[in-house]
Specification:
Chain lengths: 211, 211
Amino acid sequence: MTGSRTRQQILLHAARLFGRHGYYGTTTRDIADAVGIRQPSLFYHFSAKHQILAELVDADLRQTMGRLAQAESFDTSWAERFHFFLAASSRDYLTLPYDARGYYSDAIFTEPEFQDQRLEIERFHKRTQQLVSAGVDAGEFLGVDPVFIQRAITGLQFEGMRERETNATAPVSERPLQLSDFILRAVLSDPARLGAVRAATESRLDAVDRG
Amino acid sequence: MTGSRTRQQILLHAARLFGRHGYYGTTTRDIADAVGIRQPSLFYHFSAKHQILAELVDADLRQTMGRLAQAESFDTSWAERFHFFLAASSRDYLTLPYDARGYYSDAIFTEPEFQDQRLEIERFHKRTQQLVSAGVDAGEFLGVDPVFIQRAITGLQFEGMRERETNATAPVSERPLQLSDFILRAVLSDPARLGAVRAATESRLDAVDRG
DNA sequence: GTCTATATTCCGATAGAC
DNA sequence: GTCTATCGGAATATAGAC
């Protein structure tokens, strides 16, 4: 993410405060205090409070959509594609200092100033549902409702974000594979495949890290 | 829930608005407009805005804790107890006109005026984790992290509440068993048991309905 | 780029008439 | 039990000095 050091600090602390107290529960004064500047100084870097959240969501959606494209590009089973996507995009919580994925279902995006984000989130949700549908059609997944699964992912990632922002001792490094294992166990027609699927994801994540 | 008709209308519309826009994103004027009264008239029925949310949470926690006690009282396997609790407490979304379960992880409860609710929610989370741990110790469940499972339930129910409040066409009647099946499939050591476990829950829910 | 000072709007809550 | 009128405080955002 580009911008001056102060600008990055604003994004970092805003993401953490939004995660703890929500968008409306966080004031521009709270953000400024966390950064160590006065409240009006925020408006030199951002034209409005909602621009801060919009930029956080845009950056995260770009990365998450990239993870989806990366997963789809693998020449492998739907189970491995899905598991990799879930683990990799969840793991991005760890490597990014801030993350707004948990807001993907938030009612905040019904506000007119967030229309661009709402439309992009809808596209992302649709593509996630298509990934699940493909696995169902191929017989790899049980006849689950793709909309339910997509909403389950959103709920689990929202809760994961909350856990990171509200619980300093959260064992966050285990969560990405816990989450992807949890969802795959719930949808796989043959749960015995999970061990191999997980191993494939681990080797792909290692490859991504090295290259 | 006791109280005059207007008081019940306030609780109903407040729950829906909190679900759509969050606690801070909902103003007392929004609630009053939905009920069809003027904003100060709210304060004849409730001494403060936070008393509205507190009452919603108290009523829901009473019911949910009752479901947990009911599930624990059954002389059966941990899988059947857990599945019944998840389906029954999720189904309460349908029979109650309003519900605040989705807020159980909300940062709002770190505010001092919600201390009572925070402590009761912590007790509820602990008991849920104990139910999962018992199933793990008995070998019925995989060696999952009870804290992760409890947070997963919270995330899934939060998303379920959001779906009900933001999507008028949501197929909400299927969600309770979808949710309990989803979680049980993810934790059962022997996934083949799910059919029987689900059947047991369905017959228990029928029995509960008949009295 | 950050500051002080302040405009403006909005929110929760109270007072008192009916 | 609901209303009109309004208070006090807090929130976002702007103006202009440094």
